[in-house]
Design a protein that fits this description.
globular; alpha/beta; golgi apparatus; 11 helices
Length: 326
């Protein structure tokens, strides 16, 4: 494998368990949308004697395994990351004492093309985590001959009055406009409540809406690709993961936020012209594989794509001073 990645070598820091494995007491830590931090850690540990080295002096990159998103809010169940800054700082101080003057590369889901604090450091955009096991279970339960009987699908938060206490508008009002414009349109199956069988609905759908929320990305983007539903990305300035492996223009649609009111006619035009071509492109197993983190890693999967992205940055690490963070 090292030949594939230009003899890339990664040293995985053995940090105290309070930075990572202690958080695994909560089962959700291994399956939620940010669980790539654990999956990638396990995947790298499995590559001992190959990409992974136990000798820091021969390493090109250092992986710092800090699980910052496994602290779940008791209010809404979402990851609460108020502790993340102090936890990451403590980890940085710890590794800097051993190997000073290191630079960092951040592995992040927040990819945008415009100016943003998350883009001010060198980074690699990765997909949100979706459990390969949960997808496999969903796919097993889909009849081979089952037709996609939902034309346009979205299940998620769509607020009628989207301004929150800070005065900001959730989803820049995009989801509110979707609900107001298409809530009673029979072509659209829009649901605002959670549902355990959510992935089965994606598998039944032709178009899956992927509008921005507070961030431009969401796990439904990966779920849509994996389950063969054409993602309709409504998030201006989004930067998508692994564009060299996933030809996003060939497998998805992008609709400008300002055009959400024209969504119905846009999708009808696609259905009448090149929908079958997009669906055929979505059937390529390599596309689905590139967005999923497997343990151990598989050729072409998301961990593979991360390693490939890092191998292209080897010129930066001649002095072996780079870190990869999650």
């Amino acid at each position: 494998m090292t030949d594939v990645f230009n003899n890339l070598k990664i040293y995985v820091y053995d940090l105290p368990s309070k930075f990572n494995t202690d958080w695994l007491a909560n089962d959700r830590c291994s399956n939620h949308l940010f669980a790539a931090e654990e999956a990638l850690h396990k995947a790298l540990l499995s590559l001992e004697g190959d990409v992974r080295t136990k000798d820091p002096h021969e390493a090109d990159f250092f992986f710092v395994p800090v699980y910052v998103s496994c602290n779940f809010s008791t209010v809404n169940g979402f990851p609460a990351i108020g502790h993340a800054r102090s936890l990451i700082k403590e980890a940085i101080d710890l590794v800097s004492a051993q190997y000073p003057n290191q630079n960092s590369i951040v592995l992040q889901t927040f990819g945008v093309t415009f100016k943003h604090p998350c883009q001010e450091v060198e980074n690699v955009v990765i997909p949100p985590y979706i459990s390969p096991v949960s997808l496999h279970k969903t796919q097993k339960n889909i009849p081979v001959t089952k037709e996609r009987d939902i034309r346009v699908f979205f299940r998620g938060k769509m607020e009628i009055h989207p301004r929150n206490i800070s005065g900001r508008f959730y989803s820049k009002r995009v989801r509110t406009e979707i609900w107001r414009s298409y809530g009673s349109d029979r072509r659209f199956y829009l649901q605002r409540q959670r549902f355990a069988g959510y992935q089965s609905e994606i598998a039944r759908s032709v178009f899956c809406l992927c509008p921005l929320g507070w961030a431009p990305w969401s796990p439904r983007l990966v779920e849509s690709v994996a389950l063969g539903c054409v993602p309709v990305i409504i998030a201006d300035g989004i930067r998508l993961p692994f564009p060299s492996a996933v030809r996003w223009p060939d497998i998805s649609l992008t609709v400008a936020e300002r055009d959400v009111g024209k969504l119905g006619e846009i999708l009808e035009h696609v259905a009448e012209t090149n929908l079958s071509v997009i669906q055929k492109n979505l059937e390529d197993p390599s596309v689905k594989r590139a967005l999923l983190f497997n343990v151990p890693p598989q050729e072409g999967d998301a961990t593979w794509q991360v390693l490939e992205a890092l191998s292209k940055k080897l010129h930066r690490s001649a002095a072996r001073r780079s870190n990869a963070f999650l």
